[in-house]
Design goal:
The protein has about 425 residues and is an alpha+beta fold. The protein is built from 12 helices and 19 strands.
């Protein structure tokens, strides 16, 4: 923590009502939602483009069921997908999303990672960011951590947990990539999508290649998504366990080893799969994808039981969302649960308390760093649900700034009313 005297010497870059850190799916929606409430909004992003996993992560399909009326629908129109789970062009998305922010009046700062939290007593007053011109302060009435990795939360001294309770291991890191030159109809989106390759099970062929060392040991299935351009496949196969997504050495190792895995997966496809003999790498994610890092310990912790039972909450600000328990095995290849367990979810609510830290005022969390258990996180971490969380957090942050009260002092009914006025579904009547 910077000494207060040193903090005051830093130049003031901006004074704003709502400050959002992280321009991924949650942060984009938080910023736009707050701006539409009439607030001055500043959005900072540590990389050189907006979108997070939507763009830099090359996750070209947005997953998770969300009721109609959220900003997810608008983003679907911007991406040209109409809100359906089909691939978008990541380069077009960078421009479309940046233009959307500009049109909504959001002040965007790229290449401005969070360096420190500006805190007075127990209240967050803004952030210190690292800019190409040096450190600078941004003052804010309310701040939203949408970094995914809980960077603001950690710097603010908020209690966070990492990984599963038994050993702290997180879900593995991956890099998605796209190949071209495919002359085959083969796709494999799930473990149930098996087919015969020269009389042999494709899935067993993958498993045998993993055991023999032809594929990396943690790569036990090579998922191939075929709903892109003709002759192309998006590949979800690389998997690296026992890495910490906020550790510098592990980040560098993950990037190196996952790109090596990419080469080995392509070599496997060329060698064994008819029609893939001439496949080639077209593009890959700009950074390793860490599914799980920090999770805040908030006023309420969402559990797997809440999700499996489809639990409703009186302070729900995200309603009727759904996705399976998509827990990639922290110990090795494949999934941590069988399909029957993984799919044992029902439409569920996320309460406002999951966005509120115990230790700090003036601060909200949104996206995958909210308060939830390891298993619950595997469901709500997907992008469509993160968008819904970001929108709710943005509206709450705006109301906090306008009313001059901490986020935890807000009447949740006011947040719910504002969400409904914005078109968000908060009742079962129109849940998909």
């Amino acid at each position: 923590m910077l000494h207060p005297a040193l903090l005051k010497e830093l130049p003031l870059l901006e004074e704003t009502d709502v400050l959002v850190a992280g321009a991924g799916p949650a942060g984009l929606c938080a910023a736009v939602a707050a701006a539409r409430q009439g607030c001055r909004v500043t959005l900072t992003e540590r990389f050189g483009a907006v979108g997070g996993n939507l763009t830099l992560g090359h996750i070209r399909t947005c997953m998770g069921i969300v009721p109609p009326g959220t900003l997810k629908d608008e983003i679907g129109e911007l991406l040209g997908t109409g809100g359906e789970c089909r691939p978008h062009n990541v380069e077009d998305a960078k421009y479309a999303l940046a233009r959307w922010l500009h049109e909504e009046g959001v002040t965007l700062y790229l290449q401005t990672p969070v360096a420190e939290v500006w805190k007075e007593g127990g209240t967050v007053r803004g952030l210190v960011v690292s800019t190409p011109q040096g450190l600078a302060r941004i003052a804010a009435k309310t701040t939203v951590d949408a970094t995914g990795d809980g960077m603001v939360l950690a710097l603010a001294g908020v209690s966070c947990v990492v990984g599963r309770p038994s050993d702290g291991l997180t879900q593995p890191a991956s890099i998605l990539f796209t190949i071209g030159g495919v002359e085959s109809d083969l796709v494999c989106c799930h473990e149930s999508d098996d087919t015969l390759i020269n009389g042999q099970s494709y899935l067993k062929l993958c498993e045998e290649a993993s055991r023999s060392g032809e594929l990396p040991p943690d790569v036990t299935i090579v998922r191939l998504y075929g709903d892109g351009a003709p002759g192309e496949r998006m590949v979800n196969a690389t998997q690296l366990c026992r890495v910490d997504g906020v550790n510098l050495a592990d980040i560098a190792r993950s990037d190196r080893e996952l790109r090596e895995q990419t080469d080995r997966v392509i070599a496997f496809l060329r060698r064994h799969i008819p029609g893939f003999e001439n496949c080639r790498l077209l593009d890959g994610a700009d950074l390793p994808g860490f599914r799980e890092t920090r999770r805040m310990e908030g006023l309420y912790t969402l559990t797997a039981e809440d999700i499996a039972q489809g639990r409703a909450f009186p302070d729900a600000v995200v309603h009727g969302v759904n996705f399976c328990f998509d827990t990639h095995n922290p110990d090795g290849g494949g999934q941590a649960e069988d399909l029957a367990v993984a799919r044992g979810t029902r439409p569920y609510d996320i309460p406002y308390r999951c966005f509120l830290p115990k230790e700090a005022d003036g601060l909200l969390a949104a996206g995958r760093c909210i308060s939830g258990t390891h298993k619950a996180h595997s469901s709500y971490r997907v992008m469509n649900i993160c968008m819904a969380m970001g929108e709710a957090a943005g509206i709450a942050a705006a109301l906090s700034a306008q009313k001059g009260v901490p986020p935890r002092a807000l009447d949740v009914k006011d947040i719910q009313a504002a969400l409904q006025k914005a078109g968000v579904t908060l009742s079962d009547e129109s849940v998909l």
